[in-house]
Amino acid sequence: MKRPKDPFATLVGIIIVGLLLGAAAATLQKLGNPPNMGICVACFTRDIAGALGWHRAAVVQYLRPEIPAFCLGAFLAALLFREFRPRTGSAPAVRFVLGMFAMIGALVFLGCPWRALLRLAGGDWNALLGLAGLIVGIGVGVVFLRMGFSLGRSHPARSVAGLAMPFVMLVLLLLAIFYPQVSADPAKPAALFRSTSGPGAAAANIWLSTAVGLIIGFLAQRTRFCTVGGLRDVILMRDFHLLSGVLGFLAAAFVLNQVFGQFNPGFAGQPAAHTNALLNFGGMVLAGLSFTLAGGCPGRQVFLSGEGDGDAAIFVLGMLAGAAVSHNFLMVADGPTAPHIVVAGLVIVCLIGLLGRERFIPAR
Amino acid sequence: MSQNVDARGLSCPQPVILTRAALQQAGSGEVIVTVDTMTQVHNCTRAAEKLGWQAAMQVKADAFELRFTK
User: Is the preceding omega at residue A339 within 30 degrees of 0, hence cis?
Assistant: First the structure.
């Protein structure tokens, strides 16, 4: 049988989807999402951790519908194209720790790789340091991969293992849509925390965010859109396929930011950002390395969790926990403990990289 | 004699790393790579074709068998 032709797997396919994702992010920002944060998998996961009360930073609490919608969109795409495959068992505890440190690093910079691109597209030049850190982190990860790093094989699992994360995400989405997140009526207390000021209070219409999230999840599952994979494949083997989509994402966001008047160049006074160059760089080295060892960027981990990958689901739960820890221990942005956790995180994740080397991966 | 690579259950980009290593080691002939997701089918095929190998796929019960020839 010949190799199947899938339009989504082509270069044109991933570029078009990259452009659509970048356009969607800039548009969601225009319609209410926080500045330079039309879509940020790290920030939005952090907001969800806040909505659930896992941290009490009052300005970043909102059950963002985009993240559950990403997972469910990918779930629907996987079902439709017969790619839903429940699987798990590839060092889940290590993946949880990697998810935590990926999130901790991203929150020191204040954004996942997607937001790093959106910040750049909005003229926040601090993002250049973050992206430089991301490239270095991925480069270090590639060194470990070349040395034979592996978290081991996953194995086919029962349906329940693959359905768990889409189910959790469905519950979160239904809560976000149907349960009051802000209530002044003491007789009708809100189950979820919701910011009344700050980034957590800025949000596009919930139905719109949900619809856009579902479409993005669907398209990203089909094309395997991955920001970390894009840079990794170029460093590892000069393959520009995934990076083409990432550049499309950046280009579309840049152009639409000009159209919407969302481009404000400079270092100082940028929204949800700080100017500590070393921490912007170091935070993203930690995040880039953690994402690379786990096999993909935060968005990709959410999409994978939607197609039945229980290990990616554990990584996403690690990100939720990492967000809570970051805010509870003042490790966010240029907070007092941020330098300590970046150094400690780099040591721990490098240890994982060294200990995960394998000369031979046994067949199952 | 064809070379076999079992890349089932491995995260990105390990199946591609193993595939490239096997193809480069073989130089020519036939290399069979077994993967278990369409993502890896596309990734490994793209990598092999860049190295000048021809690809054909066979769907197995719970995996995809990629036959690369050059």
Answer: no
Q: What is the pLDDT of residues B9-46, one digit of tens each?
A: 999 999 999 999 999 999 999 999 999 999 999 999 99
Q: Is B4 on the interface with A (CB under 8 A)?
A: no
The answer to whether residue A235 neighbours chain B at the CB level (below 8 Å) is no
Integer angstrom CA distances of residue A143 from A291, A315, B25 = 14, 22, 20
Residues A132, A113: Cα–Cα separation, whole Å: 11
Which residues in B1-70 belong to E strands, given as ranges?
3-6, 30-35, 54-59, 64-69
Do the Cβ atoms of B54 and B69 come closer than 8 Å? yes
Contacts with A81 from chain B: Cβ below 8 Å? 38
Would you call the peptide bond into B13 cis, given omega within 30 degrees of 0 as the criterion?
A: yes
Token pair of A332 as six digits: 């966010």
Is any Cβ of chain A less than 8 angstroms from the Cβ of B24?
A: no
Rg (CA), chain B: 11
Is the CB of A156 less than 8 angstroms away from the CB of B62? yes
pLDDT of residue A6: 82
Contact: A239, B50; criterion CB under 8 Å: yes
- Compute the distance between CA of residue A181 and CA of residue A265 in angstroms, rounded to an integer: 35
Write down the pLDDT at residue A140: 98
| A239 φψ region: left (φ > 0), alpha (ψ -120 to 50), beta (else) | beta
Helices (H) and strands (E) in chain B, counts: 2, 4
Residue B6 and residue A9: Cβ atoms within 8 Å? no
Q: Which two tokens stand for residue A266?
A: 């400079």
Residue of A nearest to B21 (CA): A146
pTM: 0.95
A129 Cα to chain B: minimum distance (Å): 26
- Chain B positions in Cβ-Cβ contact with residue A85 (cut-off 8 Å): 36-37
Q: For strands B3-6 and B64-69, give the pairing.
A: unpaired
Residue with tokens 């089932």: B8
CA angle at residue A9 from A45 to B18, to 5 degrees? 85
* Tokens encoding A259: 């159209």
Partner B contacted by A87 (CB < 8 A): yes
Cβ–Cβ below 8 Å for B56 and A229: no
**Which regions of chain A are under pLDDT 50?**
1-3
Q: Looking at this predicted complex, what is its ipTM? A: 0.94
Contact between chains at A3 and B45 (C-beta distance less than 8 A): yes
10 Å Cβ neighbour count for A5? 7
Token pair for A322: 């990492």
Residue A84 Rama label (left phi>0; alpha psi -120 to 50; beta): beta
